[in-house]
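Human: I wish I could look at a protein chain and see how it folds. This is the protein in question:
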Amino acid sequence: MANDKGAGDLVPVDPEHSAPTSAGTAVVHRDAVQNPGLPPHRLRVGDLDPKKADRTERGISILFYISIVASIGAIVSYFAFPIIPDNPASVRLNTLFLGASIALALLTIGIGVVHWGKALMHDHEGVDVRHPVRGSDETRARAVEIFDQANKESGFGRRALLRNSLIGAFVAFPLPAIFLFRDLAPTSDDPAAELRHTMWDKGVRLTRDPDGAPIKASDVTLGSAFHVIPEGLNESEHKLEEKAKAAVLLMRLKPSDFNVSPGREDWNYDGIVAYSKICTHVGCPVALYEQQTHHLLCPCHQSQFDIKNEAEVIFGPAKRPLPQLPITVDAEGYLVARSDFTEPVGPSFWERGDYDNN
């Protein structure tokens, strides 16, 4: 009669296994699969013929030298194809040649390094044995041996042509960035002075951003907020640079809501106050005004400033209040600045004392 044992009944697997096991459990005999080992190692062309290895080395070095030339070409392209205002063609040319040069410099480094690893570095298989103990003298000594072995296997210390050309490519590749970022800095002999002062001055009207329309005190109602730029900014040759320093937020509160420090009594006009729009954390635009709490919020890192208390920091990473622009009105009722900001705008770099010492 057939055995009607269920799937969960215990049956012996083979004579060597006397212990019963579930018929639904897969069991693999320890000798069922043998370790096939590693396949025979195949030597590369360079391993069989040293002359071809030298030829490969020269080819890889040429790639690194091309990278050096491309990096220098990026610098030349930046000056040879300058961006001309109101000329889109100049932007395209500058972007094309600058981008192509930098891409070629990086691409040839990548191709050269990959080809070096595939064609010339040590190619034999190895086993990485992990030891449970680390930090002993033997471990540190072994680490030194591994680095020395890696140097020998890669040929970095022995193949001077490859090593020197690769080092040269890595040194040349960052050079375009130096010229690009340096060109963003002010060009005067004292760039710090340009950062300390803005276009605001005594009598300069407050105008709407971006159309430049002057603002009357009667236009600013309770709870409203205006994005403000100084009059004449739109005609400035360095409009963006000046706006990055001079942008202002204008709000109106009840005069009784303010806690005013001595000496600042006339910095607001009938409850209208103006504060720098540049966050004192990292310079993001403070653009969110909460009417009920009279708080300004920087959307980048959530710093909050209390307008009722001279824009003091009440939350977030900012370390100092927003600078206040002293304002009043002129004979025609338009809001004007009393002076420039009395302290530099922007991140807390200014707290390092450079401003106070000049």
